[in-house]
């Protein structure tokens, strides 16, 4: 019986797999696996039990496999080595196996050779999936595979990655406490959006222009705006690497770039968004199309989807449905429309106290609830959607459903440059202590907003409370003290169940109810006009004129029980 290879190859790309040291007797097995070329990246004589390249080449020749010798000393991968490796990959027939002592040099050579073809996140993701950490050469990857200078291009006391709600709010909270802080925000966007308003745009209540302002007009006074995208992090070097390999050093880092709307995970979705009746309030340019479809619809089937958690504002897919149903009801066409809510989850809303009020509206509007239904593909021209149904204790199946209108909530994940970084947990989110929002491994790093892994709802209201918590703790750290503030998981989801009424869901960790107002004023478990007034008239100016300017209305941080140093 033939012995299996001692080391299993790890696939990095369709053309390349890497492995630790192979033996001459492994070559026949590699041939059987389909490999057509072998690249040796280990110098002869590096180990006492190491076969020479000539031995491997002889065995490969007997199997009709091409070989190339690009020996690299451990820890000394030069730019020329990477260029030679890239040329070999282009010239040799694939698939190719590259080997060294452990596979790391081969993975490094591939990473550097592909740096002018793939993004740093793509390279780091591919090598991480194969079991190799390339963060040690991330500056070279970001520099097109070439060795850059080690000198930083900029250095600041505090660097904030992300200029969304969380990033600008925490910058404003910091400057409100210490005017002399040297702070920089890194974000490539020209426009800042009030995303909670897009539900109202899709319901015909707000104009889209009301939800957008220029980024330059919102950056707090005295804070530097670095208009660039982040490629990677080097937390051990207190450095952020920007696209183009610019290096920004920091004393303290705050990470809050938001999350990634992964439209591409639903087959066919990108090709049909904004036409064929397929829309989403999760995009600024598509929310007006939602309202256009609602106005034009007089009969047929309308589907509203929700992907697996976590997502930004878990109530948003329902909000779109309720406002659409209300508009159809007011026009007298709701009875002719088959409304379906298809969610990958098993409950209508994650906090049970709010479910009875929502179910009343489900009944009122005649909505069909389809739990454990995850949208996997869309054929826009054919007006059909395919859902994967994963009900408990049942076989997974796929069903095809026709539609006339479909509002899609896209799958969501941490941004690629976060997911593959040393700051991420196993699921790709920034790994923080859920009370202090400080990174669990790197003491001078904090995170807030949608990208961190605390088990709270991902909403702008949550970021409003998190920002002063992080600001207080960063200031305490500057002063040599322990954390002084803690976050209780607060999040808010104003569920727009009809035009003029809202179920104001407010809750913290573990689903604990955390109402902001006396029950006599707003009972969050029941629909109310007062909550609608809050959403329509009060919250937008609070966002623009208070939260983003360091005025922490109803967002005073809770104090920790631990004494300061």
TrEMBL record:
<dbReference type="InterPro" id="IPR023753">
    <property type="entry name" value="FAD/NAD-binding_dom"/>
</dbReference>
<keyword id="KW-0874">Quinone</keyword>
<dbReference type="Pfam" id="PF04273">
    <property type="entry name" value="BLH_phosphatase"/>
</dbReference>
<feature type="domain" description="FAD/NAD(P)-binding">
    <location>
        <begin position="156"/>
        <end position="259"/>
    </location>
</feature>
<dbReference type="GO" id="GO:0070224">
    <property type="term" value="F:sulfide:quinone oxidoreductase activity"/>
</dbReference>
<keyword id="KW-0809">Transit peptide</keyword>
<keyword id="KW-0560">Oxidoreductase</keyword>
<dbReference type="GO" id="GO:0016787">
    <property type="term" value="F:hydrolase activity"/>
</dbReference>
<keyword id="KW-0378">Hydrolase</keyword>
<keyword id="KW-0274">FAD</keyword>
<dbReference type="InterPro" id="IPR015904">
    <property type="entry name" value="Sulphide_quinone_reductase"/>
</dbReference>
<dbReference type="InterPro" id="IPR036188">
    <property type="entry name" value="FAD/NAD-bd_sf"/>
</dbReference>
<dbReference type="InterPro" id="IPR005939">
    <property type="entry name" value="BLH_phosphatase-like"/>
</dbReference>
<keyword id="KW-0285">Flavoprotein</keyword>
<dbReference type="GO" id="GO:0071949">
    <property type="term" value="F:FAD binding"/>
</dbReference>
<protein>
    <submittedName>
        <fullName>Beta-lactamase hydrolase-like protein</fullName>
        <ecNumber>3.-.-.-</ecNumber>
    </submittedName>
</protein>
<dbReference type="InterPro" id="IPR029021">
    <property type="entry name" value="Prot-tyrosine_phosphatase-like"/>
</dbReference>
<dbReference type="GO" id="GO:0070221">
    <property type="term" value="P:sulfide oxidation, using sulfide:quinone oxidoreductase"/>
</dbReference>
<feature type="domain" description="Beta-lactamase hydrolase-like protein phosphatase-like">
    <location>
        <begin position="12"/>
        <end position="115"/>
    </location>
</feature>
<dbReference type="GO" id="GO:0048038">
    <property type="term" value="F:quinone binding"/>
</dbReference>
<dbReference type="Pfam" id="PF07992">
    <property type="entry name" value="Pyr_redox_2"/>
</dbReference>
């Amino acid at each position: 019986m033939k012995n299996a290879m001692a080391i299993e190859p790890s696939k990095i790309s369709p053309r390349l797999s890497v492995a630790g040291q192979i033996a001459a007797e492994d070559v026949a097995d590699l041939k059987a696996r389909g490999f057509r070329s072998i690249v040796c990246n280990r110098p002869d004589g590096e180990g006492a039990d190491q076969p020479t390249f000539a031995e491997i080449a002889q065995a490969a020749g007997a199997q009709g496999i091409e070989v190339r010798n690009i020996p690299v000393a451990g820890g000394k991968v030069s730019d020329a080595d990477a260029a030679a490796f890239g040329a070999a990959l282009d010239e040799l027939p694939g698939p190719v196996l590259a080997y060294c002592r452990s596979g790391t040099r081969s993975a490094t050579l591939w990473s550097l050779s592909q740096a002018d073809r793939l993004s740093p996140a793509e390279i780091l993701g591919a090598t991480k999936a194969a079991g190799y950490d390339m963060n040690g050469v991330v500056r070279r990857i970001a520099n097109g595979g070439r060795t850059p200078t080690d000198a930083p291009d900029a250095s600041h006391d505090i660097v904030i990655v992300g200029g969304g709600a969380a990033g600008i709010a925490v910058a404003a909270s910091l400057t409100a406490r210490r005017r002399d802080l040297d702070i920089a925000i890194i974000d490539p966007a020209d426009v800042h959006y009030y995303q909670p308003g897009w539900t109202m745009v899709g319901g015909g209540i707000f104009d889209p222009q009301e939800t957008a302002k220029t980024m330059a007009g919102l950056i707090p006074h005295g804070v530097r705006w670095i208009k660039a995208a982040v490629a990677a992090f080097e937390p051990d070097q207190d450095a952020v690497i920007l696209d183009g390999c610019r290096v920004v050093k920091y004393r303290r880092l705050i990470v809050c770039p938001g999350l990634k709307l992964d439209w591409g995970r639903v087959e066919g979705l990108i090709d049909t968004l904004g036409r064929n009746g397929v829309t989403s309030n999760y995009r600024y340019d598509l929310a007006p199309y939602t309202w256009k479809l609602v106005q034009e619809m007089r009969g047929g089937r309308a589907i509203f989807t929700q992907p697996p958690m976590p997502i930004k504002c878990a109530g948003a897919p329902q909000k779109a449905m309720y406002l659409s149903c209300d508009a159809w009801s007011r026009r007298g066409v709701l009875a002719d429309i088959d409304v379906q809510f298809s969610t990958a989850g098993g409950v209508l809303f994650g906090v049970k106290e709010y479910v009875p009020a929502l179910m009343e509206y489900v009944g009122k509007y005649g909505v069909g609830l389809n739990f454990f239904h995850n949208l996997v593909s869309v054929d826009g021209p054919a007006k059909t959607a395919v859902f994967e149904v994963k009900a408990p204790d049942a076989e997974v199946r796929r069903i095809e459903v026709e539609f006339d209108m479909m509002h899609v909530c896209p799958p969501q994940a941490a941004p690629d440059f976060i997911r593959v970084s040393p700051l991420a947990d196993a699921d790709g989110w920034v790994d923080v202590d859920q009370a202090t929002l400080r990174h669990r491994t790197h003491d001078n790093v904090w995170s807030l907003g949608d990208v961190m892994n605390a088990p709270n709802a991902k909403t702008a209201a949550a970021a409003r409370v998190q920002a002063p918590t992080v600001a207080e703790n960063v200031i305490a750290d500057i002063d040599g003290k322990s954390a002084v503030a803690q976050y209780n998981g607060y999040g808010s989801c104003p569920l727009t169940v009809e035009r003029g009424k809202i179920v104001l869901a407010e809750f913290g960790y573990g689903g604990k109810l955390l109402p902001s107002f006396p029950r006599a004023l707003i009972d969050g478990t029941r629909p109310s006009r007062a909550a609608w007034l809050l959403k329509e008239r009060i919250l937008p100016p609070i966002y623009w004129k208070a939260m983003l300017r360091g005025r922490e209305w109803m967002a005073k941080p809770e104090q920790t029980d631990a004494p300061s140093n």
